[in-house]
Amino acid sequence: MKAATLLLTAAALVTSVSSYAGEAKIKWGDLKDYTDARPANETRKGFQERLVKRFDKHFNFEAQNNLPEGYVFSAEIKDLDLAGDVRYGMNEFRVIESLYIPRIEFSYQLTDKDGKVLSEGDVKIKDMGFMDRMRSIHADKEFYYDFRLISSWFQDTLYPELGIEPTKTYR
After folding, report:
1. Helix (H/G/I), strand (E/B), else coil: 8
2. Beta bridge partners of 65
3. Confidence band for 96, pLDDT divided at 50, 70 and 90
């Protein structure tokens, strides 16, 4: 009996994982041209490589966990203004204050497994109250407020437009 229950549980997990396997393809411009994609106390190149890698990973988190298999979310990041502001002095550091809100501007296209365009548009989002919400245990992680802004757009705008109920959320 235990073996049958274990097999059914494993089958359910495999089914649920395979039914959500979207993909995100993100195109970036020159980060020097963005409003604020500046490093604090590190090299510009290393910071920008990490920023692109982490943001690409976050967009893929949304796609892989909530979009049906074969769906592709393609976006071109037009501008980025990270939460906080870099202060200069003996050591540069990023100060997170409510005055320095996260913003992102991108154009996107969502296609299904057959290549049919399901949704597309130009998006300009910002979170003027990003520090007024309950703090998450993840709030100390790098780019937390920026990722929460992106996830909120997916969960409050894109998914309802498509009739998708998110299975995994980032908040």
Report:
1. helix
2. none
3. confident
Whole-number Å distance between alpha carbons of 60 and 52:
12
pLDDT at 137 over 70: no
Give burial (CB, 10 Å; 0-12/13-18/19+) of 23: middle
pLDDT above 70 as % of the chain: 82
CA angle 41, 47, 50 (to 5 degrees): 140
Distance between alpha carbon 31 and the CA centroid of its chain, in Å? 17
List of residues 6+ apart from 87 with CB closer than 8 A: 93, 94, 95
Three-state DSSP state, 20: strand
CA 157 to chain centre: 14
Q: What is the DSSP letter of 158?
A: I
pTM, rounded to two decimals: 0.82
d(CA 135, CA 57): 22
Q: Which of 85, 95, 86, 102 is nearest to 42 (CA)?
A: 86
3-state secondary structure of 162: helix
Distant-in-sequence, close-in-space partners of 161: CB < 8 Å, separation ≥ 6: 119
Sign of CA dihedral 109, 112, 115, 119: negative
How many angstroms separate the CA atoms of 109 and 170, rounded?
A: 21
